[in-house]
Write a structure and sequence with these properties.
2 copies of one chain form a homodimer.
Chain A lengths: L1 E8 L6 H12 L5 E14 L4 H16 L5 E7 L2
Antiparallel strand pairs in A: 1-2, 1-3
């Protein structure tokens, strides 16, 4: 079962990568860019076939390894 | 208008970051992890209010700056 995890910086946390992208887009002539935030996207293939258990496992993975919960939020989507 | 961009490595391209995460998860005792792929997730706030134009702009941004189209695929989702 495939699990998709989005890890994003919490609102208010400075995002220098996002700022760099925004600056580069301005430099390339893309107008009207009001903001850019960069996060991580992780796809995990789990042997688990029960969606509820897969979600639980993925959330434990986020809390223990994937996300820094002091400054980052995570979202888990369980797919096929 | 908010645009969400997912940038992932093409199938077949080696993903050392994903392998490192998989190894770390194994080390923490998470069993049944068959594979991990890491990508990027970028949220862009555009002044543009027309969804079709916002998508077109975001795809141009991906092709010109955000993604390395030799080894990466991108997906654009236009939201509110």
């Amino acid at each position: 079962m495939k699990v998709r995890v989005h890890i994003t910086l919490k609102t208010g946390v400075l995002d220098p990568q996002g700022k760099a992208i925004q600056h580069a887009l301005d430099g390339l002539g893309f107008a009207g860019v009001d903001g850019v935030r960069q996060g991580k996207y992780i796809e995990i293939d789990l042997a688990e076939t029960d969606p509820a258990k897969a979600r639980e496992t993925a959330e434990a993975m986020c809390a223990r390894l994937l996300a820094n919960t002091v400054i980052e939020d995570y979202r888990v989507d369980v797919g096929s």
